[in-house]
Amino acid sequence: MLTRFYADNFKCLQNFTLEFDSFTLLTGPNGSGKTTVLDSVRRVADLLTQRGTVETLFPATTLTRWDRRSEQLFEFDLKLMETGSGSERLDGGLYRYRLRISHDRLKEKNRVVEEQLTFEGRKLYRGWLDDTESSASGSAIFKAKLFKDNGQEGATVLMDWFYSGIGRIQPRVENRLLQRFRGFFERLIILCINPDSVSADTRKEEPMIAFDGGNFAGWLLYLLGAEALACREAERSLVDGMMPELALFQLEKEGTLRIAKAIFKAKSEEIKLRLDELSAGQRAMIILEHTLAVANSWGGAIIIDEPANFLALSEIQPLLHRLHAAATEGRMQAILTSHHPVSFDLFAEESGRWLERTALGATRCQRVSALVGQLSDTAIPLSELVARGWVQAGHGSGIPATEALEKH
Amino acid sequence: MPRACKIVVVPEDKEHAALARGYLAARGVNPGSYRVTQKWTGKNGNFDRAREWFIEEVRLQARGKVRFGVVALIDEDGQGLAVRRQRVTDRLAVLNLPNLDPSQGRLLVLPVRNVETWMVWGARWVAAGQPTSPATPAGFSAVDETHDYKRWRASDGQLLSHESRLDAFRLGRAIASLNSAAPPSGLPPALEAILRPWGDFLDWARD
Fold first, then answer.
1. How many other C-beta atoms lie within 10 A of the C-beta of residue A282?
2. How many angstroms separate the CA of residue B49 from the nearest CA in chain A?
3. ipTM of this predicted complex?
4. Which member of A2, A283, B30, B32 has the lowest number of beta carbons within 10 Å of its beta carbon?
5. Which structural domain range is residue A391 located in?
6. Distance of residue B119 Cα from the nearest chain A Cα, in angstroms
7. Full-prediction pTM beyond 0.95?
8. pLDDT tens-digit profile of A122-143?
9. Is residue B151 part of a domain?
10. Is A181 domain-assigned?
């Protein structure tokens, strides 16, 4: 699971560290940087998995507006358990990943200047910008040193600085640790569901769901083949909860398109509804249930922005409990952002991280438990105290919440 | 700057909540500065629940970690003003909590017999042209605090004829417009008694 994320000079994240547990709830006021955290994680994951280049994923507009420095730095700590057995066995341990991106503000160009991956302190990959040994054109070049799983040095190769080198290395028997690291990000699901963007039709399989869930039909087409059991699990959960009349999902062929439809059965009647004919809440729940089932099956991580959005009150607590249970039982990792009082009262003291920033200031993070302090010993729900504005980090000055109130 | 609540309102039911909102709105209190708790049970509210919630707020206030005022609005319900009040003060004393004191941000508003009494007064007051002077306008009749204007029963059990009741929010605004030093005549005694404490409470909370 992801245990630490660091970002510097990315939007409102300046020298920003966030530590994760198996279940983590990110919360805080509007504009505090919660979605920016998700966005930065997503962009690094997309770079690592070749879904984009630094030019498309990290344009100059992602630099911190008030910071004159032209370099961005990102780090991940990732702890993975031992996997496989016999010759397939891979040790459990801690990965450390570091990515440095340099921007030329005048030319509006950027490039990777450093990329490094270690496992238990052992180098697996090191890429760097080498301006000592210039290429024939006289400009700097990006080199990468490869390492085998046993730590033995491999070849030094030239890399394209617009891409993550780790994402471009061919899988080999001697770099399985690196492949496992990359595989984690290939299966990292990051969602900010927008039901309006969910289309019912698709032309092809999509191996990963889009940030807004828009390509769910294509992902479903992929899952029905690759993760049929997880699909059944998601359907079962929907039948047990929001959609008791649901029979199954189908992708019907219409010309070159496949149309995702939900088939409902009540008594002897059968009704087929296109995905985009369902309500916003139903679409959101269908995506959430499939995400949860797939993440469980993959044993990976999911990061969801406001999972309670669009859902009926009766659906929110059961969903949160299931996410929490799956995460704490070690099947997957769940990182959520939420303002919802139910999520706050259930999980904030135990797993909450409070993000806050001043106007034009950088985001800072504190554990909710540390912030609440003596306010927590009351029968009044924590969400109520938050709604009253009594839980706040003190305008970035380290002032305890209550003193901040008095200043206010 | 993040907003922070300075007043917590503990109403017995939604009519009391509306009355408090109307009062605070008329006194220029920003809606972001107060918070109405909404934990009443059922249509008719619940004295014990409102009292316990109020006590919990006083306990939190007494810790001094956050400066805020707390006002509870609970009907007398024919139990007697002093008795109702004592049921709250006794509980505070048992828990070793500070007593009611509007000038220290702890206020109990007890409509007698219930908030509907004040709503009927409000309707009659509006019909009489909203007089603010102590002189009684012609044709104005005062409400009887022993009657139950909620169930339209007189103190002797006889049915009362139904009449208009002023919407609770507008009633709150009306109460805020009254001069505690020279209230209009015909004001229910319990309402008259609360005018100054409520003003003192607000002054403290605004400090």
1. 21
2. 13
3. 0.82
4. B30
5. 358-408
6. 30
7. no
8. 999 999 998 776 555 667 889 9
9. no
10. yes
